[in-house]
Amino acid sequence: MRIMEMSEDERPREKMRDRGAAALSNVELLAVILRTGTGGRNAMELARELYSASGNSLCELSSLSADRMCAVPGIGFGKAASIVSAFELGRRCALERAGNTDISVTDSKGAARLLAPYLRVLDHEECWALFLNRRNRPLGKEMIGAGGLNDTPIDSRVVTRLALEKKATGVILFHNHPSGSPEPGESDIRQTASIRKGLSSLNITLLDHIIIAGDTFFSFSDERVYHL
Question: Are 39 and 73 in contact, with CB atoms under 8 Å apart?
Fold first, then answer.
C-alpha cells in the first residue's frame, strides 16, 4: 500500500504536522527521513525493515555507516546518507549543548546526558573534558585524547593547561568504552589519579570522571572512587 493510500492520521508527515514530531514512533520518524519507498514497499515498510535490522535500537542504527545501511534491500546511498546526516546533526547538537553556559551541571546523570549521545556510538575510545566555573556552568569542552578499541592515553598536562586557559574551577572527564562495559580499568584509575593530583595542586577540582558505554555509564564520583 502506498502511504498516500493510508488514512491521513496514519501518514507520518501529516501526523507530524498535526501533532508534532514527539507523537511519531521511531519507525515513523525514519519514514519521514526516507521520504519515499522503493521496490514495491512504501517508506514505512522500508523504515520498519531498517529499524528491525538494527535490533530495534536507535543507538545501534546511529552507529551504522551509510554503506552498512545500504545492505538493507531498498536502502540506497541517498536514503542512507539522509539518515546518517540526521544522526550526525543530533550528535553535534549534543556537543553544542555541552558547551551551553546556561546549563548548570549538578549530578552525574545530567553530566552524562551532555556527551553520551556522541560518545556511546563511537567504535573507538575518545576522552573529553568539560570545564566548569564556580556555579558549575560550562566554560567549554575539549577532546583531549583518542585511542583504539580499548585504550585512550590522556596527558594530564593538557587537561591542566586547558583548565587554566579557561579559568575553570572544576573539570569533568568523559570517555567511552566501545566494549559495552562501563567499569573502569586499572589504566583509567591511574590516569584519573594523575589528572586529579595535577588539578588539585592548582586549586582546580576534578568533579567526576564518567565512562560512557552504550546506554549505561560509570561515575567515579557516584561510586566514590576516591582511593586514587
Answer: yes
Query: How confident is the model over 160-186, as pLDDT tens digits?
Result: 999 999 999 999 999 999 988 999 998
> What residues contact 71, with CB distance under 8 A and at least 6 apart?
53
CA dist 87 and 73 (Å) reads: 21
Residue owning grid cell 529499524: 51
Separation in Å, CA 227 to CA 138, 163, 180, 205, 215: 27, 23, 25, 15, 27
Whole-angstrom distance, CA of residue 24 vs CA of residue 130? 33
Cβ count near 104 (within 10 Å): 12
Separation between Cα atoms, residue 35 and residue 43, nearest integer Å? 6
Task: Please state, in angstroms and rounded to a whole number, the distance separating the CA atoms of residues 88 and 143.
Answer: 17
Q: What is the pLDDT of residues 44-97, one digit of tens each?
A: 999 999 999 999 988 889 888 999 999 999 999 999 999 999 998 988 887 777
Q: Whole-prediction pTM value?
A: 0.73
Say if residues 209 and 192 touch (Cβ distance below 8 Å): yes
Q: Measure Cα distances from 22 to 17, 25, 62 in Å.
A: 11, 8, 19
pLDDT tens across 2-20, in order? 666 676 667 889 989 989 9
| Residues 6+ away with beta carbon under 8 Å from 120 | 59, 176, 212, 213, 214, 215
- Amino acid making up residue 32: V
Longest dimension (CA), the chain: 69
Residue type (1 letter), 63:
S
* Residue 63: DSSP 8-state: T
Fill in the DSSP letter of residue 40.
Answer: T
